[in-house]
Specification:
Blueprint (H helix, E strand, L loop, with lengths): L4 H6 L2 H10 L21 E5 L7 H10 L4 E2 L15 E8 L8 H14 E12 L7 H20 L5 E7 L8 H8 L10 E4 L22 E5 L4 H12 L3 E6 L4 H10 L3 E4 L7 H11 L3 E6 L14 H23 L4 E10 L3 H4 L5 H21 L5 E7 L5 H4 L3 H9 L9 H12 L10 E4 L8
Parallel strand pairs: 1-2, 1-3, 3-4, 4-5, 5-6, 7-8, 7-10, 8-9, 10-11, 11-12, 12-13
Bound molecules: nicotinamide-adenine-dinucleotide.
Nicotinamide-adenine-dinucleotide binds next to α7, β8 and α13.
Length: 457
């Protein structure tokens, strides 16, 4: 039993019958990642929109490497079944569009795919970066994909997701970690989103020889706010993927912090990240572990008040913890050899920083500020072959959301394409993917992990 009574009810034997009869919205059980799980649980359909597509070859080669059966005809009978039997994924190479007329080929491929994709299936559209087109017709066609994907994601059922990857010119061979993330069940709660690969020029790296079961092997990571909630799950997920983890939290959370550090076989550092000495203390501690490869800025606070009732101390404490502390630590990381070449910074923003939230002007300001920080820091990190990216969680089942009034909580859960809240592990999986060395071509991105919550963009 979860604490989501509605989901438990509509998934129970009698509840399913009643829900079907009176038309209650279903709540799909999402397939989530477990070590050893295959990338896809069945066959894939792979389409191309134009003869100029530049990524289908890369996708086909990845799928054949991992033993997935691939068909180009979206009506192909699969495994002795019919032309309507279920598939695990539909992927369309939508690069090379020259005008909106080319979109018809994508519709022709995706219409049968939408009917065939199975529970927790994956639909991926891969297109060119709109901003890299100067012709109005080309740019219009590229941008159209966003509306198509966001709308299709609202139609997909049974926990299937629909997402869009924009691939910069020349980055087609730098897609592997991104394809693996979006196709696998690590991205269970990422739906209706768009992400760019290779847009900040100058990236370098390789995914040759990566152990995809332990993609963080040999890397040392810091996670702030690791005593509980999302941070504790991030620490466990990074450990599962092979990292050595340094867990940071305030001294008042010392016991819980020690438990997380014990669970992950890592070290605990009691530190208030807003202290003047926090950046230097963090770097000194990391130096004793041989330096740092990954920094996850997860610690965050809310001090919610309507703006009309806001006071300066509350305002400042939110901006200090959620934004200023990260800026100060990043400055120190950029200036220090302790933060290794090829390092990864991952920060936690929020839907409140994108769409805004009543009672959360300080929090929303801090979380939007985090996005500005990512935008400006991404190009600065290129010379270190490092990256910075953000996750923007929506409604995640934590102690914080369990304490919400019932109406707010139910709206947060149901007003999304997944009709449920996400789990801390959904945020953690996204962070762990950004943290991989193999994600070298993903820089300056903000990815919502919110089951396509209907609030905001
Ligand atoms: P949480 O309150 O359960 O955990 C936050 C942790 O940060 C706590 O252990 C706390 O002690 C620590 N922390 C606070 N101030 C600190 C400081 N000055 N120095 C060091 N550690 C400090 O919160 P959570 O729900 O797990 O959220 C984690 C992150 O995710 C936050 O940045 C939050 O804003 C963001 N987020 C959460 C949700 C959600 O639905 N829970 C949604 C969007 C964004």
């Amino acid at each position: 039993m979860s604490n989501d009574w509605y989901s438990d009810f509509v998934n129970s034997g009698v509840g399913k019958t009643i829900a079907g009869q009176v038309g209650l919205p279903p709540v799909p059980r999402l397939r989530r990642y477990e070590p050893g799980q295959p990338l896809l649980s069945g066959a894939a359909l792979l389409g191309t929109a134009t003869a100029d597509g530049r990524v289908a070859k890369v996708v086909r080669s990845l799928l054949s490497d991992v033993g997935v059966e691939v068909h180009e005809d979206p009506q192909a009978p699969i495994g002795g079944g019919s032309s309507t039997s279920k598939v695990a994924a539909g992927i369309v190479d939508a690069t090379g569009l020259s005008s909106p007329a080319d979109l018809a080929a994508i519709q022709g491929f995706l219409t049968p795919v939408m009917r065939r994709v199975g529970p927790s299936g994956r639909i991926l559209v891969i297109g060119d970066v709109p901003a890299q087109a100067t012709s109005p017709a080309v740019r219009a066609a590229r941008r159209s994909l966003e509306g198509l994907v966001r709308s299709a994601a609202k139609e997909a059922r049974y926990g299937a997701t629909v997402n869009l990857i924009h691939v910069a010119d020349g980055a087609e061979n730098d897609l592997e970690s991104t394809l693996r993330f979006f196709l696998s069940s690590r991205s269970a709660f990422v739906d209706g989103q768009r992400l760019e690969v290779g847009t900040v020029p100058g990236f370098s790296g390789s995914s040759q020889g990566v152990d995809w079961d332990k993609p963080l092997a040999g890397r040392t990571a810091v996670v702030t706010g690791a005593a509980r909630g999302i941070g504790a799950t991030v620490a466990k997920t990074l450990r599962r993927d092979g990292a050595t983890v340094i867990c940071v939290d305030v001294p008042a959370a010392g016991d819980a912090l020690a438990r997380t550090a014990n669970d992950v076989g890592g070290s605990a550092l009691q530190l208030d990240i807003t202290a003047d000495h926090a950046p230097s203390t963090l770097l000194e501690h990391a130096q004793r572990h041989g330096g740092l490869d990954v920094v996850v800025h997860n610690a965050g606070i809310t001090r919610d008040k309507l703006l009309a009732n806001q006071d300066r101390d509350r305002w400042n404490s939110v901006i200090d913890v959620n934004l200023n502390a990260q800026l100060a630590i990043n400055d120190a990381l950029l200036a220090s050899e302790v933060f290794h070449r090829g390092g990864r910074i991952v920060t936690v923003s929020s839907m409140a920083g994108i769409a805004g939230n009543r009672g959360q002007t300080a929090y929303g300001a801090s979380k939007a500020g985090v996005i500005g920080m990512v935008d400006a820091t991404a190009p600065l990190l290129v010379e270190k072959d490092a990256t910075i990216n953000a996750v923007a969680p929506g409604f995640i089942e934590t102690a914080m959301t369990a304490a919400m009034p019932v109406g707010t909580r139910e709206a947060g859960r149901r007003l999304s394409s997944m009709t449920q809240g996400g789990l801390p592990v959904d945020v953690a999986e996204t962070i762990a993917w950004f943290a991989q060395g193999a994600s070298y071509a993903v820089n300056g991105q903000v990815l919502r992990v919110d089951g396509q919550n209907y609030l905001g963009a």
